[in-house]
Amino acid sequence: MSESTAAAAPVPSLTWADPARAQAFAAWLADVGPRHGLDAASVQPASADASFRRYFRVAAGAGSLVIMDAPPDKEDCRPFVAVDRLLAGGFVNVPAILEWDEARGFMLLGDLGRHTLLSTLVTDQPWDAGNRARYRAATEELVRLQAVHAAGVLPAYDDALLQREMDLFPEWYLGQLRGITLDDTQRGHLDRIFTTIKAQVGGQARVLVHRDYHSRNLMADPADASARPGVIDFQDAVHGPITYDLVSLLRDAYVMWDEDVQIDYAVRYWEAARRAGLPVPVDFGEFWRDFEWMGLQRHLKVLGIFARLAIRDGKRQYLDDIPRVWTYAHRVAARYSGLGALRLLLEQAEAAHGGAQTQVGYTF
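RESULT FIELD:
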């Protein structure tokens, strides 16, 4: 067996559904490995996400790097590369792109660490000093991200996109997951509510929006709570409402904080954003109302997405996160006038699943 043939043998520690993909990966690794000191025998799965992308970690000298496997017939990596370069130009802590084989769908990236923000949080102690330092670092990184110029560079988070996202709620969450078919009256109420939501969030100032700036997409240093988080999964970034990413962070589908904690972090973000010259309202009460309406749009979308992931894609684990998202949406629907029909729909959907309950919260 020749040296080149041996180098292109499939990596034994990995499993592949497609033998041709395994061979392509081995050949690519043999090509780029010598340039970066990669130890092919050390390649191990790192993570997978809700798409067709997979990630591997590989030893490189004294450290490690990350490999993205994104089959080109299923994943277009060009948005990831474009946004990565845009954010890196604004000094946001994103992975460095060291190699990109667009034709074969493999990428070699800098390693931002093994620990997500979620994995480092003390979830039963909301005022834990480490939690506070980590969220302070996350909001400071968000301010840095939002300062990157995106108008005319990234797609607009426009009325049509907002509508498509909210349409996932009646189609997948109400219909497919909970078996609710809306009558004409309910559909009319929901259409009017969607129009109101779009009007509320459409009037907000616009910045670069990550779209999934939450505890599973921020990489944290477990030894240093004040360290800058690494930012990943940004390929769907758009130019849109300034409150969107803060909602993703503070009303996270994977960890829930009491509203007094959310407000404390939101005030600190708002103060930092004002110092940085970002276009947040001068009055925090106005900012908080914007935050709540934006959150309602996002959480209706996420209810639909989680239902679709569970039903269409067989990823049933997302059903465990629905109660948090439902609670966020229900609180806002119960708090603001004109949303009563939505509140009733949410309660009808979850009445048999332990979700319908009275919520108390803050308004300004």
